[in-house]
Amino acid sequence: MATGRERNRTIAVLCGAVVVVAVVAVAMFLGMSRSGSTSRMTSEQMACGEDHVLVIDAAGDVYAWGHNLMGELGDVTCDDKSEPVRIEVPGRVVQVAAGDELSFALCKNGDLYAWGNNESYQMGDGMNISRMEPEKIMEDVEAIAAGSYHALAIKEDGALYVWGRNKDGALGIAESDCDQTDESGYACQSTAVKLMDDVVDISAGLDYSMAITSDGTLYAWGHNVEGQLGLAETDSVNDNDQPYQSVPAKVMDGVTDVACGARYQALALTEAGDLYCWGKAIVGSVSTREVDDTENMIQTRPLKIMEDVKEIAAGSAHSLALKTDGTLYTWGVNNYGQMGTKRGEFQYAIGEELIYCQETPRELAKNVEAIAAGGFMSMYRSADGVLRSVGCNVYGQLGIGSEKSSVTTPTAISLK
């Protein structure tokens, strides 16, 4: 049986497919309060990649831990870390973003640094050489988002720039406009190119992207085989007859925040605190089975699932919602206990392995201030200033110094 990162990817591949035979119910496609410490850890901002984590402390310093095969931790090694290590980034950092083996740090002065996997030009430095320490790639940046193999940045004038792999329209530009090709044959853009104006928020997943303009309009583009764009129809299909959107298309109005899961689901939050979700519903990722495409178990349009929400986050196939009263809820795939429990409402058998799923949002913690979600892990900062994590720990991505492959009790992380 596969283990580690291979096992994670296998689960992601299998946990979202359509159930062909109803009696078999097997997924077939890709993809509190134990404190543990008395020390206060105030993280100003945090980001989870597929298997690694970045956080910023109150002084603007960056810490990283977890998977490090491609140098995505930025500590000039390729060794995984189960506890936080401080990363040398010039300047005071105000935002971090993490993709699949890829990391970014944005400084207060607008300088953007990148490190990690660069095989598909996703660092945006014009080359495809992976880096084990931060390298400055751009100036005058206001915000950054990392997809699995591409990235987006909002400049200080509100213009949105994109770069990296352009598989299935992930960049929102034509393949013919890209300047490179990676080893897999996909068109790539090696440096940042302008896509659109007047953008205030961004998010990205596996080969798809989303952006919110200043008037609250949500746009989406890229791969859409699981309905992750929130669009009932798209303008293109790939060689496998799978749908994708080649240019930004309007999804909905009145949006203040958006969160892209790796592939199966996306979330949008309105100014009124209403939470909308869409995508693949077969493993609980949309928090309902009453979807508009019952044949494929896909919710193709945004569906309201919760009220009084102030923050959202999405992992590979699970989601987090922080209510205005500080209560944190989670739902979707729970194969590593990322919901703070060992089981779920239902399960799928995949060979000898069971995948646990939770469709109804489950309370994970109270008195929470901020949240983040990785591939198969959840993380939050509670009101006492302590950062806690739960779920998959195969590469030490929980940051708690444990050798356990998974942890079902939220446990404190201590920055040293």
Number of domains: 1
CATH topology description: Methylamine Dehydrogenase, Chain H
Strand count, sense and barrel status of the largest sheet are: 5 strands, antiparallel
Structural class: mainly beta
Number of strands: 31
Shape: globular
Strand order of the largest sheet: 9-10-11-13-12
The low-pLDDT segments are 14-42
Name the CATH class: Mainly Beta
Q: Let me know the CATH homologous superfamily.
A: Regulator of chromosome condensation 1/beta-lactamase-inhibitor protein II
Gyration radius, in Å: 19 Å
Short description:
The protein has 416 residues and is mainly beta.
Features:
416 residues, mainly beta, Methylamine Dehydrogenase, Chain H, five-stranded antiparallel β-sheet, 1 helix, 48% strand, globular
What does the secondary structure layout of this molecule look like, with pairings?
Blueprint: H1 4-14, E1 43-48, E2 52-57, E3 62-66, E4 81-87, E5 93-98, E6 102-107, E7 112-116, E8 131-138, E9 141-146, E10 150-155, E11 160-165, E12 180-181, E13 187-196, E14 199-204, E15 208-213, E16 218-223, E17 236-237, E18 243-252, E19 255-260, E20 265-270, E21 275-280, E22 298-306, E23 309-314, E24 318-323, E25 328-333, E26 346-350, E27 353-365, E28 368-373, E29 377-382, E30 387-392, E31 406-413
Antiparallel strand pairs: 1-2, 2-3, 3-4, 5-6, 6-7, 7-8, 9-10, 10-11, 11-13, 12-13, 14-15, 15-16, 16-18, 17-18, 19-20, 20-21, 21-22, 23-24, 24-25, 25-27, 26-27, 28-29, 29-30, 30-31
